[in-house]
From TrEMBL:
SUPFAM superfamilies registered for this protein in UniProt: Winged helix' DNA-binding domain
Keyword field contains Transcription regulation: yes
Coiled-coil blocks: none
Annotated protein name in UniProt: Transcriptional regulator
Gene Ontology MF annotations: DNA binding
Keyword ATP-binding on entry: no
Organism: Planobispora siamensis
Domain HTH hxlR-type per the UniProt entry, residue ranges: 12-110
Length: 116
């Protein structure tokens, strides 16, 4: 989905919301940042397969969407932390029922699988 669709006032609200969380890493980053601020290196350690470049790009998009706050500390070595904004917390809370539904779906699928 294009970024312009996420900002089009004539689209369905669900479409606009999905445009903001669309992507492989955004929902898991929201979930990790719920527990508090994280440094990029901490996020990379917790997400095997995520590259530094993709993490940086994803966090920049999430920051532009108002979901995360980037804080650069003036210390040596330089230290950067990311945390959820109040708007990001609102989104995370809005996703909780969808997460519950997803877990129920997975349980249903597991129950319907023949025993091997």
């Amino acid at each position: 989905m294009t970024r312009s669709r996420s900002q089009d006032p004539n689209v369905c609200g669900v479409t606009a919301a999905i445009a903001v969380i669309d992507g492989k890493w955004k929902t898991i980053l929201l979930w990790l940042l719920e527990s508090g601020p994280h440094r990029p290196s901490e996020l990379l350690r917790q997400l095997p397969g995520l590259t530094e470049k993709v993490l940086t790009q994803t966090l920049r998009v999430m920051e532009a969407d108002g979901l995360v706050h980037r804080e650069a500390h003036d210390s040596w070595p330089l230290r950067t932390e990311y945390s959820l904004t109040p708007f990001g917390r609102d989104l995370s809370q809005a996703l909780e029922p969808l997460s519950d539904w997803g877990h129920r779906r997975l349980e249903k699928l597991a129950a319907s699988q023949p025993a091997s």
